[in-house]
Amino acid sequence: MKFGFFDDGRKEYVITNPQTPYPWINYLGNEDFFSLISNTAGGYSFYLDAKFRRITRYRYNNVPIDSGGRYFYIKDGDTIWSPGWKPCKTPLDKYECRHGLNYTSITGEKDGVSVNVLFFVPLKTWAEVQKLTIINNSGQTKKLKLFSFLEWCLWNAATDMENFQRNFSTGEVEIEGSTIYHKTEYKERRNHYAFYSVNVPITGYDTDRESFFGLYNGFDEPKVVAEGKAGMSEAHGWSPIASHYLEVELKPGESRDLIFILGYVENKDEEKWESKNIINKTKARETMARFNTVAKVNEAFDDLKKYWENLLGIYNVKSADEKLDRIVNIWNQYQCMITFCFSRSASYFESGIGRGMGFRDSNQDLLGFVHQIPERARERIIDIASTQFQDGGCYHQYQPLTKRGNNDIGGGFNDDPLWLIVGTISYIKETGDMGILDEMVPFDNDMSVAKSLFDHLTVSFDHVLNNLGPHKLPLIGRADWNDCLNLNCFSNDPNESFQTTENKTEDSKAESLMIAGLFVVSGREYIALCKKLGKSAETARAQKHVDMMVDAIKKHGWDGEWFIRAYDYYGKKVGSKENEEGKIFIESNGWCSMAGIGKEEGMVEKALNSVKKYLDCDHGIVLNNPAFTRYYIEYGEISSYPAGYKENAGVFCHNNPWIIIAETVIGRGDEAWEYYRKICPSYLEDRSELHKTEPYVYSQMIAGKDAWRPGEAKNSWLSGTAAWTFYTVSQYILGIKPQFDGLEISPCIPANWKQFKVTRKFRGATYVIAVENPMGVNTGIKSVSLNDKELSGKLLPLCAHGTVNKVKVIMG
Ligand code: GLC
Ligand code: GLC
Fold this sequence. Notes:
single chain, 18 helices
């Protein structure tokens, strides 16, 4: 069953039934000011950091779901309704939500009155603009009462939820004209306030929550709306809100536009005050003035649309399959922008409090983002590298506001450093910017011990070498990519977090075959970079270590039919036929196969056949099999999850692309495609009821074959799946691969594909690449021509800036 449809022309997903199987959300803003918005206008806003600068309040995991947002109430006679259906839930005559690229447009219609609200964050603006349009489509004059509503968060989203003995006494607002200012804590250490305005005079307002709703009412029955007049309340402590009250009279056919702005302002210490206790509103007024007419708002909206047109023009496919085209051209790239902005911090599953920017996560996110705005990718790489330690180890995450690393979700993950190599090299291949390697980058934010970014890559590489175990394989540390395979934790206290509890690495023999494979793949990239830089000694040194790792994997990492997953604390195999449960895992088979280890001896093919046999199911490839059915103290969190969920045999979408890429390594285009399609949301739209999460974005996890409800997804939006699937489809299936000196063409597609076309902007030139597959092969290139000249290899050379180049590729 579907709850809407894709409107590819407008690059929107259109939801026609507000009762989606879960709130289906969107993100506004992509720079500093951000909002999450659901299809019923739920959600919240923050500046830069969802934990430390939460602007509006939201209640996670509440009853009903999705509680809190920017709500409008229309009172038409005795009927009260909301254009987004919620919170009133009054049945609407028409409902439509269009989620577009960084904007959402919601329309509700009731008794001849139509209300549309367009929500977006204009570029370079610290505000969410809400353009509300009311049309009277009825035959008679309508005297409507309109109430806006949002609830302020007391800035720190964590203490906002727990420190009520203080919070209920701190709230402060100011009201001036049609603008409500939220200034809690501004008089002490804060340099910021927020405001909510409308561009016309108002009839009334409320700023105190209890006065607005009545103490015992929900969002669906505000007291003042029922009474039909504002309470004119002024918040002192308790829970400050912002609500405007407007009376709107419309003749038949008449319409009215109103522009609401939710803004954020920072002032320097010496500019904080206008007069005693009166905040300096200059910047707020400037923002309001920028968007006080429909024409100005429309112009800002057009700018946003153009911005996205440009970004999406960099990689564009035209195939015979519209589901593929829409995911590649629009939604997957959009999701890559969102994961770039938020890492794993703020979604409807990530509370914005627990996690900041992940070292491993953000580096991987770059794979899907570098082509979009390389300058921002560059800055991110430097930020991430700046939190690294001198020995190559890393903080697992940093807080976006401070850019300082922390141990809030653990530390000592031995895969972390290698991702810096992966992220940085993908940036260099996209841009050719070797100069980034010379940037002086601090360790743990201490500039006095700064070294070049290249040196950071070297210490990352060496961190693995300095942490080898008994089989000369990488020691796992707290965990590798799979945060939940905790081989050194041995936790038997439910009050401990697996992520932060003691990590008994001393004397541990726990080694990871996932890190081993990743080391070979990223190590080869590092070697290629060293060669390119003419560093021959380093090239040779690194090559020696990569070769030794390959040998160690062949010798100690092979189980006969697949790669084992790890050795545990005691040196016993994990992910082997010797095990009772968890005999085979996806990660080591993905990475060792991507590295092509033992390809000549048939190991890769065997490993991938085993993956197919034991891990594949209707909903994707599960993480391990058989699922763990009891708690294994020596494995930790992985065995804490019920079978079929999350890291315990769920389809953890993030790692499926590793197998897909591995399939392309041995040229099996049909298998690669089949796996790709299985987890791709645009192909799952018809099953929305089961899948539950948005059909336009990937989710972290789909319940696996052992689950109670296989096929049900969770954790949509913020997942490495976004970057990995885009990387996989764009570079390995469609096969357009940035290299240091050009664009390599090596598709690996289903045999029955006749042709496809990719337009790729790369280092200033445009390549229009037409690929034909007359012989029905999976892979292999017969000829490549550039502007009608035959090339000898499959590497397109760099072309002059601004040129449009015709590329013809014949497979066979
Ligand atoms: C989460 C984490 C990521 C980790 C993965 C597997 O998605 O953000 O860092 O690799 O889970 O445990
Ligand atoms: C839990 C999750 C995992 C996530 C980790 C980090 O272990 O299962 O996916 O990466 O928490 O907070």
